[in-house]
Write a structure and sequence with these properties.
Oligomer: single chain
Number of helices: 11
Helix content: 55-70%
Shape: elongated
Number of strands: 0
Radius of gyration: 19 Å
Strand content: under 5%
Structural class: mainly alpha
C-alpha cells in the first residue's frame, strides 16, 4: 500500500491516511496523515472528499479547524458525483448561505436529489429540509404545494432506529471525532453517558500518543 501511495494512487493514499502506524511501526504524525487525506481528496477519492468535508464541519481535530467554506467546497465536489449524504449536507448549506453565497435554486435541487436517493435515512432528512424550506424557512418563498408534497414524503419514508445509530456511529468513529463529541452522539441515542465514563482514545486522527499499541 505504501508503494502505491508513493505513486500517488488515490485509494492507497486514502487507506494509508486511516492507518495507525508508519513503516517502522511508529505512530504516523497527525500532519502526515492530514496531508495524505487531503491529497487523496484532491485526486478525487469520494470517501476522502466526504471525510475532509465533515472534518472541517466538526472542527474537532488539530489538523482540521472548523471552516465552513472548505467544508462546502469538498461536500460540493462529492455531491456532484451523486453522493447522497453530501447532497443533503451541501444543499442545506447553499440554501442557508453557510460557507458561501446563498443560491436557493441550486441548494433545493441538491436536496431533491438527496430526497430521491437510495438511502432512506438521508432521503427522509432531505425531505424534512425541503418541507421546512418550502414553508418559508431561511427566506425561501413559501410554496404550499411543494411543502405538502415533502411533508407527505417524510411521513411515508420509514427509518429504523438501527439506521440512525449506524449513521451516528459512522460519523463518530470513521472521521476521527474526539471522544467527547462521540459520547454526545451516544448519549443522544442511548443515554450511555454514565456507562462510558472514560472516553476511549481517538482511533484515527487523534493524538498519536493516545493510540493503542499494535
Amino acid at each position: 500500500m505504501k508503494a502505491a501511495a508513493e505513486q500517488d494512487h488515490p485509494e492507497a493514499l486514502y487507506e494509508l491516511s486511516l492507518t495507525r502506524f508508519g513503516p517502522h511501526g511508529d505512530h504516523v504524525l497527525n500532519d502526515a496523515r492530514h496531508k495524505l487525506l487531503i491529497r487523496a481528496a484532491e485526486l478525487g477519492t469520494v470517501a476522502a472528499q466526504r471525510d475532509v468535508a465533515v472534518l472541517y464541519i466538526w472542527g474537532d481535530n488539530p489538523s482540521f479547524e472548523r471552516d465552513w467554506s472548505k467544508a462546502r467546497f469538498w461536500y460540493l465536489q462529492v455531491a456532484r458525483k451523486g453522493h447522497q449524504e453530501s447532497q443533503l449536507a451541501v444543499g442545506s448549506m447553499i440554501v442557508r448561505g453557510d460557507g458561501g453565497p446563498v443560491n436557493q435554486e441550486e441548494g433545493l435541487a441538491l436536496l431533491e436529489l438527496a430526497a430521491n436517493g437510495p438511502d432512506s435515512y438521508e432521503a427522509k432528512a432531505a425531505a424534512e429540509e425541503l418541507a421546512s424550506y418550502y414553508s418559508g424557512a431561511f427566506g425561501v418563498p413559501p410554496d404550499r404545494d411543494e411543502g405538502y408534497i415533502w411533508r407527505e414524503r417524510v411521513k411515508s419514508t420509514p427509518v429504523w432506529p438501527l439506521q440512525v445509530w449506524v449513521h451516528d456511529v459512522y460519523a463518530g468513529c470513521a472521521l476521527g471525532v474526539t471522544a467527547r463529541n462521540f459520547l454526545k452522539l451516544l448519549r443522544r441515542q442511548f443515554g450511555l453517558g454514565r456507562v462510558l465514563a472514560e472516553p476511549r482514545p481517538n482511533l484515527f486522527f487523534g493524538d498519536s500518543e493516545a493510540l493503542p499499541p499494535s
